[in-house]
Design a protein that fits this description.
disordered N terminus; about 350 residues; flat; alpha/beta; single chain; about 40% helix
Length: about 350
Protein backbone atom coordinates (compact mmCIF):
# COMPACT_ATOMS: atom_id res chain seq x y z
CA UNK A 1 0.00 0.00 0.00
CA UNK A 2 1.51 3.29 -1.10
CA UNK A 3 4.44 1.41 -2.71
CA UNK A 4 5.45 0.87 -6.29
CA UNK A 5 2.87 -0.69 -8.56
CA UNK A 6 3.87 -4.17 -9.71
CA UNK A 7 3.15 -3.26 -13.35
CA UNK A 8 5.79 -0.51 -13.19
CA UNK A 9 8.47 -3.08 -12.37
CA UNK A 10 7.18 -5.89 -14.56
CA UNK A 11 7.51 -3.92 -17.82
CA UNK A 12 11.29 -4.39 -17.53
CA UNK A 13 11.15 -8.20 -17.15
CA UNK A 14 10.12 -11.21 -19.23
CA UNK A 15 8.56 -14.31 -17.71
CA UNK A 16 10.78 -17.40 -17.60
CA UNK A 17 8.64 -19.75 -15.51
CA UNK A 18 4.93 -19.21 -14.89
CA UNK A 19 4.12 -21.92 -12.35
CA UNK A 20 1.06 -22.01 -10.03
CA UNK A 21 3.45 -21.64 -7.10
CA UNK A 22 4.20 -17.91 -6.96
CA UNK A 23 7.40 -18.43 -4.97
CA UNK A 24 8.89 -20.55 -7.76
CA UNK A 25 8.14 -18.15 -10.60
CA UNK A 26 11.15 -16.59 -12.30
CA UNK A 27 11.65 -13.62 -14.58
CA UNK A 28 14.44 -12.34 -16.83
CA UNK A 29 15.67 -8.73 -16.90
CA UNK A 30 15.21 -7.23 -20.37
CA UNK A 31 18.39 -5.16 -20.03
CA UNK A 32 20.99 -7.69 -18.82
CA UNK A 33 19.06 -11.00 -19.22
CA UNK A 34 19.69 -12.08 -15.63
CA UNK A 35 17.19 -14.55 -14.13
CA UNK A 36 15.77 -13.93 -10.67
CA UNK A 37 12.73 -14.72 -8.54
CA UNK A 38 9.46 -12.98 -9.40
CA UNK A 39 9.56 -10.80 -6.33
CA UNK A 40 8.82 -7.05 -6.83
CA UNK A 41 11.27 -6.04 -4.09
CA UNK A 42 14.10 -8.11 -5.55
CA UNK A 43 13.26 -6.92 -9.05
CA UNK A 44 13.31 -3.27 -7.95
CA UNK A 45 16.62 -3.76 -6.12
CA UNK A 46 18.10 -5.42 -9.20
CA UNK A 47 17.11 -2.46 -11.40
CA UNK A 48 18.29 0.22 -8.98
CA UNK A 49 21.59 -1.35 -7.84
CA UNK A 50 22.67 -4.47 -9.70
CA UNK A 51 21.71 -4.26 -13.39
CA UNK A 52 24.79 -3.17 -15.42
CA UNK A 53 22.79 -2.33 -18.56
CA UNK A 54 19.83 -0.40 -17.19
CA UNK A 55 19.13 2.69 -19.36
CA UNK A 56 20.19 5.88 -17.62
CA UNK A 57 16.74 7.42 -17.92
CA UNK A 58 15.07 4.43 -16.23
CA UNK A 59 17.51 4.70 -13.31
CA UNK A 60 16.93 8.45 -13.05
CA UNK A 61 13.16 8.00 -13.16
CA UNK A 62 13.35 5.39 -10.41
CA UNK A 63 15.32 7.81 -8.22
CA UNK A 64 12.84 10.60 -8.90
CA UNK A 65 9.94 8.31 -8.12
CA UNK A 66 11.56 7.35 -4.82
CA UNK A 67 11.77 11.06 -4.02
CA UNK A 68 8.11 11.53 -4.93
CA UNK A 69 8.84 13.65 -8.00
CA UNK A 70 6.95 11.54 -10.53
CA UNK A 71 3.25 11.97 -9.98
CA UNK A 72 1.97 9.18 -12.20
CA UNK A 73 4.24 6.53 -10.69
CA UNK A 74 5.55 5.30 -14.03
CA UNK A 75 9.11 4.20 -14.75
CA UNK A 76 10.88 4.57 -18.10
CA UNK A 77 8.91 4.83 -21.31
CA UNK A 78 10.80 7.96 -22.40
CA UNK A 79 10.69 8.71 -26.15
CA UNK A 80 13.58 11.07 -26.68
CA UNK A 81 12.69 11.51 -30.35
CA UNK A 82 9.69 13.61 -29.28
CA UNK A 83 12.21 16.33 -28.43
CA UNK A 84 13.30 16.73 -32.02
CA UNK A 85 11.97 19.53 -34.24
CA UNK A 86 10.23 18.61 -37.48
CA UNK A 87 13.03 20.15 -39.53
CA UNK A 88 15.53 17.51 -38.42
CA UNK A 89 14.38 15.47 -41.42
CA UNK A 90 15.50 18.19 -43.81
CA UNK A 91 18.86 18.26 -42.00
CA UNK A 92 19.31 14.57 -42.79
CA UNK A 93 18.30 15.12 -46.40
CA UNK A 94 21.10 17.69 -46.69
CA UNK A 95 23.58 15.16 -45.31
CA UNK A 96 22.52 12.64 -47.96
CA UNK A 97 22.71 15.27 -50.69
CA UNK A 98 26.24 16.11 -49.56
CA UNK A 99 27.32 12.46 -49.66
CA UNK A 100 25.62 11.57 -52.97
CA UNK A 101 25.91 14.64 -55.23
CA UNK A 102 26.14 12.66 -58.47
CA UNK A 103 26.34 9.07 -59.79
CA UNK A 104 26.47 6.14 -57.35
CA UNK A 105 28.39 3.51 -59.29
CA UNK A 106 28.59 1.18 -56.29
CA UNK A 107 24.81 1.28 -56.03
CA UNK A 108 24.56 0.41 -59.75
CA UNK A 109 26.78 -2.63 -59.17
CA UNK A 110 24.57 -4.16 -56.45
CA UNK A 111 21.23 -3.12 -57.94
CA UNK A 112 17.88 -2.78 -56.23
CA UNK A 113 17.26 -6.35 -55.04
CA UNK A 114 15.91 -6.51 -51.49
CA UNK A 115 18.46 -7.24 -48.79
CA UNK A 116 18.58 -7.29 -44.99
CA UNK A 117 21.43 -5.73 -43.03
CA UNK A 118 22.12 -5.89 -39.31
CA UNK A 119 23.48 -3.02 -37.24
CA UNK A 120 26.19 -4.11 -34.80
CA UNK A 121 27.50 -2.18 -31.79
CA UNK A 122 31.19 -3.10 -31.44
CA UNK A 123 32.27 -0.97 -28.48
CA UNK A 124 30.79 -0.53 -24.98
CA UNK A 125 28.74 2.60 -24.52
CA UNK A 126 25.34 4.28 -24.39
CA UNK A 127 23.22 4.08 -27.52
CA UNK A 128 21.94 7.42 -28.85
CA UNK A 129 20.83 8.75 -32.21
CA UNK A 130 18.29 6.13 -33.27
CA UNK A 131 15.84 8.70 -34.79
CA UNK A 132 18.61 10.13 -37.00
CA UNK A 133 19.75 6.66 -38.09
CA UNK A 134 16.19 5.59 -38.89
CA UNK A 135 15.34 8.78 -40.79
CA UNK A 136 18.32 8.25 -43.10
CA UNK A 137 16.82 4.95 -44.21
CA UNK A 138 13.24 6.20 -44.20
CA UNK A 139 14.27 8.79 -46.79
CA UNK A 140 15.79 5.93 -48.79
CA UNK A 141 12.58 3.82 -48.58
CA UNK A 142 14.07 1.26 -46.19
CA UNK A 143 12.58 -0.15 -42.97
CA UNK A 144 14.37 -0.31 -39.59
CA UNK A 145 13.54 -2.80 -36.83
CA UNK A 146 15.10 -1.96 -33.45
CA UNK A 147 16.30 -4.38 -30.78
CA UNK A 148 17.57 -1.62 -28.47
CA UNK A 149 16.65 1.99 -27.79
CA UNK A 150 18.22 5.34 -27.03
CA UNK A 151 19.59 5.55 -23.51
CA UNK A 152 20.39 1.85 -23.20
CA UNK A 153 24.00 1.08 -22.23
CA UNK A 154 25.78 -2.07 -23.34
CA UNK A 155 28.99 -3.74 -22.25
CA UNK A 156 30.60 -5.23 -25.34
CA UNK A 157 33.29 -7.87 -24.77
CA UNK A 158 34.27 -10.28 -27.53
CA UNK A 159 30.88 -10.41 -29.22
CA UNK A 160 29.27 -7.51 -31.03
CA UNK A 161 25.72 -6.53 -30.07
CA UNK A 162 22.93 -6.60 -32.65
CA UNK A 163 21.10 -3.28 -32.30
CA UNK A 164 18.81 -3.13 -35.33
CA UNK A 165 17.92 -4.65 -38.70
CA UNK A 166 17.50 -2.65 -41.92
CA UNK A 167 15.44 -4.00 -44.85
CA UNK A 168 15.31 -2.45 -48.30
CA UNK A 169 16.89 -2.38 -51.73
CA UNK A 170 20.60 -3.11 -51.56
CA UNK A 171 21.65 0.08 -53.33
CA UNK A 172 19.63 2.21 -50.90
CA UNK A 173 20.95 0.43 -47.80
CA UNK A 174 24.52 0.98 -48.93
CA UNK A 175 23.79 4.58 -49.96
CA UNK A 176 22.68 5.44 -46.42
CA UNK A 177 25.15 3.25 -44.56
CA UNK A 178 27.99 5.71 -43.92
CA UNK A 179 25.81 8.74 -43.16
CA UNK A 180 23.70 6.75 -40.71
CA UNK A 181 26.73 5.21 -38.98
CA UNK A 182 28.54 8.55 -38.75
CA UNK A 183 25.64 10.16 -36.92
CA UNK A 184 24.96 7.18 -34.65
CA UNK A 185 28.62 6.73 -33.62
CA UNK A 186 29.04 10.42 -32.74
CA UNK A 187 25.72 10.81 -30.95
CA UNK A 188 26.42 7.64 -28.95
CA UNK A 189 29.90 8.97 -28.14
CA UNK A 190 28.41 12.11 -26.60
CA UNK A 191 25.81 10.08 -24.69
CA UNK A 192 28.48 7.71 -23.38
CA UNK A 193 30.59 10.62 -22.10
CA UNK A 194 27.54 12.20 -20.48
CA UNK A 195 26.53 8.89 -18.95
CA UNK A 196 29.99 8.47 -17.42
CA UNK A 197 29.73 11.81 -15.60
CA UNK A 198 26.18 10.99 -14.52
CA UNK A 199 27.34 7.75 -12.90
CA UNK A 200 29.94 9.70 -10.91
CA UNK A 201 27.26 12.15 -9.80
CA UNK A 202 25.01 9.31 -8.62
CA UNK A 203 27.88 7.54 -6.83
CA UNK A 204 28.81 10.75 -4.97
CA UNK A 205 25.21 11.56 -4.10
CA UNK A 206 25.58 15.05 -5.55
CA UNK A 207 22.20 16.69 -6.26
CA UNK A 208 23.38 19.21 -8.86
CA UNK A 209 23.28 19.16 -12.66
CA UNK A 210 25.97 18.03 -15.10
CA UNK A 211 25.77 20.07 -18.30
CA UNK A 212 27.43 20.42 -21.66
CA UNK A 213 28.34 23.76 -23.22
CA UNK A 214 27.89 25.57 -26.54
CA UNK A 215 31.17 24.06 -27.74
CA UNK A 216 29.47 21.97 -30.41
CA UNK A 217 30.29 21.13 -34.02
CA UNK A 218 28.77 23.70 -36.45
CA UNK A 219 25.89 22.08 -38.32
CA UNK A 220 25.85 19.13 -35.92
CA UNK A 221 24.59 20.82 -32.75
CA UNK A 222 21.18 19.13 -32.75
CA UNK A 223 22.77 15.67 -32.72
CA UNK A 224 25.33 16.49 -30.01
CA UNK A 225 22.79 18.21 -27.77
CA UNK A 226 20.45 15.25 -28.24
CA UNK A 227 23.27 12.93 -27.19
CA UNK A 228 23.74 14.95 -23.99
CA UNK A 229 20.08 14.55 -23.06
CA UNK A 230 20.06 10.80 -23.79
CA UNK A 231 23.21 10.36 -21.72
CA UNK A 232 21.59 12.10 -18.76
CA UNK A 233 23.26 15.53 -18.91
CA UNK A 234 21.70 18.95 -19.43
CA UNK A 235 22.23 20.75 -22.72
CA UNK A 236 23.06 24.09 -21.05
CA UNK A 237 21.81 26.89 -23.34
CA UNK A 238 21.01 25.41 -26.72
CA UNK A 239 22.17 28.45 -28.69
CA UNK A 240 23.25 32.07 -28.33
CA UNK A 241 19.64 33.28 -28.06
CA UNK A 242 18.42 30.90 -25.36
CA UNK A 243 20.09 32.54 -22.35
CA UNK A 244 22.20 35.65 -21.83
CA UNK A 245 25.75 34.76 -20.89
CA UNK A 246 28.03 37.71 -20.14
CA UNK A 247 31.67 36.66 -20.43
CA UNK A 248 34.87 38.60 -19.75
CA UNK A 249 34.84 40.26 -23.17
CA UNK A 250 31.26 41.50 -22.69
CA UNK A 251 32.14 42.97 -19.29
CA UNK A 252 35.32 44.60 -20.55
CA UNK A 253 33.49 46.25 -23.45
CA UNK A 254 30.48 47.30 -21.32
CA UNK A 255 32.74 48.88 -18.71
CA UNK A 256 31.62 46.96 -15.62
CA UNK A 257 29.66 43.96 -14.44
CA UNK A 258 26.77 46.10 -13.20
CA UNK A 259 26.49 47.99 -16.50
CA UNK A 260 26.57 44.77 -18.51
CA UNK A 261 23.88 43.10 -16.36
CA UNK A 262 21.72 46.24 -16.38
CA UNK A 263 21.74 46.47 -20.18
CA UNK A 264 21.06 42.74 -20.51
CA UNK A 265 18.04 42.97 -18.18
CA UNK A 266 16.56 45.81 -20.24
CA UNK A 267 16.59 43.74 -23.43
CA UNK A 268 16.10 40.20 -22.12
CA UNK A 269 13.00 40.88 -20.05
CA UNK A 270 11.69 38.73 -17.23
CA UNK A 271 11.62 35.41 -19.09
CA UNK A 272 15.34 35.03 -19.90
CA UNK A 273 17.98 34.18 -17.32
CA UNK A 274 21.24 36.10 -17.17
CA UNK A 275 24.52 34.38 -16.36
CA UNK A 276 27.84 36.10 -15.66
CA UNK A 277 31.25 34.49 -16.03
CA UNK A 278 33.53 35.29 -13.09
CA UNK A 279 37.21 34.55 -12.73
CA UNK A 280 37.45 35.89 -9.17
CA UNK A 281 35.36 36.25 -6.03
CA UNK A 282 35.07 40.02 -6.49
CA UNK A 283 33.62 39.64 -10.00
CA UNK A 284 31.25 36.94 -8.80
CA UNK A 285 30.07 39.16 -5.93
CA UNK A 286 29.51 42.08 -8.31
CA UNK A 287 27.45 39.82 -10.57
CA UNK A 288 25.29 38.62 -7.70
CA UNK A 289 24.78 42.18 -6.43
CA UNK A 290 23.82 43.32 -9.96
CA UNK A 291 21.04 40.72 -10.08
CA UNK A 292 22.51 37.93 -12.21
CA UNK A 293 20.53 34.68 -12.02
CA UNK A 294 23.59 32.46 -12.44
CA UNK A 295 27.24 33.04 -11.62
CA UNK A 296 29.77 30.88 -13.44
CA UNK A 297 32.96 30.37 -11.46
CA UNK A 298 35.44 29.87 -14.29
CA UNK A 299 38.80 28.10 -13.98
CA UNK A 300 38.79 28.00 -10.17
CA UNK A 301 40.81 25.44 -8.22
CA UNK A 302 38.34 22.96 -6.63
CA UNK A 303 38.95 24.10 -3.05
CA UNK A 304 38.83 27.79 -3.98
CA UNK A 305 35.65 27.17 -5.94
CA UNK A 306 33.91 25.51 -3.01
CA UNK A 307 34.88 28.33 -0.63
CA UNK A 308 33.71 30.99 -3.10
CA UNK A 309 30.46 29.16 -3.81
CA UNK A 310 29.71 28.94 -0.07
CA UNK A 311 30.33 32.67 0.45
CA UNK A 312 28.01 33.55 -2.42
CA UNK A 313 25.28 31.16 -1.27
CA UNK A 314 25.45 32.53 2.28
CA UNK A 315 24.70 36.04 0.98
CA UNK A 316 22.52 35.12 -2.03
CA UNK A 317 20.78 31.79 -1.33
CA UNK A 318 18.65 31.90 -4.49
CA UNK A 319 21.50 32.41 -6.92
CA UNK A 320 22.70 29.46 -9.03
CA UNK A 321 26.40 28.63 -8.98
CA UNK A 322 28.02 27.00 -11.99
CA UNK A 323 31.52 25.51 -12.03
CA UNK A 324 33.27 25.48 -15.38
CA UNK A 325 36.65 25.66 -17.06
CA UNK A 326 39.08 22.78 -17.50
CA UNK A 327 36.82 20.25 -15.77
CA UNK A 328 36.98 16.72 -17.17
CA UNK A 329 35.38 13.36 -16.53
CA UNK A 330 38.43 12.50 -14.43
CA UNK A 331 38.26 15.61 -12.22
CA UNK A 332 34.53 16.35 -12.02
CA UNK A 333 34.13 14.71 -8.60
CA UNK A 334 36.55 17.26 -7.10
CA UNK A 335 34.13 20.08 -7.98
CA UNK A 336 30.97 18.53 -6.55
CA UNK A 337 29.70 20.44 -3.54
CA UNK A 338 26.40 21.25 -1.86
CA UNK A 339 27.03 24.89 -2.81
CA UNK A 340 27.52 24.15 -6.52
CA UNK A 341 24.38 23.74 -8.62
CA UNK A 342 25.82 23.09 -12.08
CA UNK A 343 29.06 21.67 -13.44
CA UNK A 344 29.59 22.21 -17.16
CA UNK A 345 32.10 20.38 -19.33
CA UNK A 346 33.02 21.41 -22.85
CA UNK A 347 34.69 18.04 -23.32
CA UNK A 348 31.29 16.32 -23.48
CA UNK A 349 30.77 17.65 -27.01
CA UNK A 350 34.31 18.60 -27.95
CA UNK A 351 36.50 15.70 -26.89
CA UNK A 352 34.26 12.64 -26.95
CA UNK A 353 35.24 9.24 -28.34
CA UNK A 354 33.00 7.85 -31.06
CA UNK A 355 31.35 4.47 -30.52
CA UNK A 356 32.11 1.90 -33.20
CA UNK A 357 29.17 0.48 -35.19
CA UNK A 358 28.95 -1.51 -38.42
CA UNK A 359 26.16 -2.41 -40.82
CA UNK A 360 26.45 -5.79 -42.55
CA UNK A 361 24.30 -7.48 -45.20
CA UNK A 362 23.23 -10.90 -43.87
Amino acid sequence: KGGRKQSDIYIHFDKVEDTPDFKRRRVKCKFCERNLKQDPKRMAKHLSKNCPNIPVQVKIDMEKEAEGKISNGTVGGVKYENLLPFNFKSLIQRWLDEDIPSFDVGGFVVGDKEEVAELYMKRSGTLAGCPFFEQVFTLLNCRVEWFSSDGQSWEISDKKKTIARVTGSCNNILAGERTALNVLSRCSGVATSANSTLKKKIECGWKGTVAGTRKTTPGFRLVEKYGLVVGGAATHRYDLSQMVMLKDNHIKSAGSVSDAVSKAKQMAGFSTKIEVEAGSYSTALSAAEAGADIVMLDNFHPNELKDTAKKLKDCFPAILIEASGGITDGTIVEYMSQYVDIISLGSLTQGYTCIDFSLKII
